[in-house]
Amino acid sequence: MFAQLLTPAYLPFVLSFLIMLGIGLIEAIGLGLGHLDLDWDSAVDDGGSVLAWLGLGGELPILIWLTSLLGCFTLSGLAVQQVASAVFDAPLHPGLAVVAALLVGTTLNTFVANGLARIMPGFETTVISTDDLLRRRGTILEGTARRGSPARAKVIDQHGQAHFIMLEPHDDAVVITAGETALLVRREEKLFYAVPDRPTLLEPI
Question: Is the pTM of this model over 0.85?
């Protein structure tokens, strides 16, 4: 069976599975690319739009939806090729199999994504404005934040969800290093400015 998966007829679905694993690994180690677009606002009509039907109505983070779609596509593709092999004694041409798997996988993913949205209450009504992150504290994840040289930071919103932003110090002379926390005080487009959480040194009188 393993050797069969390495043949050209199964290659698109093996690649899909590997991409799915890669996305899962990214989420597991906390890179959080599913939250990069803080201004994501579902403007679809949940009653009947195509995006809502696909399960992409703003109720799931984009990467969870994409992982679900890749999984459904992979399973559908394997099933299609197995059925074709049983009926025709040979798998379908990869192009035909991909088309069939897309049709079946997309339909299957509609039910899976909508089901995930129902069983994950943390994702039901937690869309926030970017400005809601102001007056919250962010932690520098990597790099050093200087004026003109932002660093990547993690902020937890009022719903307990993580957002990943680019952050610079509010004051020109301040440097905020990896691991430090800082209070977000203002925003310019996608860039946040923050004051570091450091003990205030009392000047001698």
Answer: no
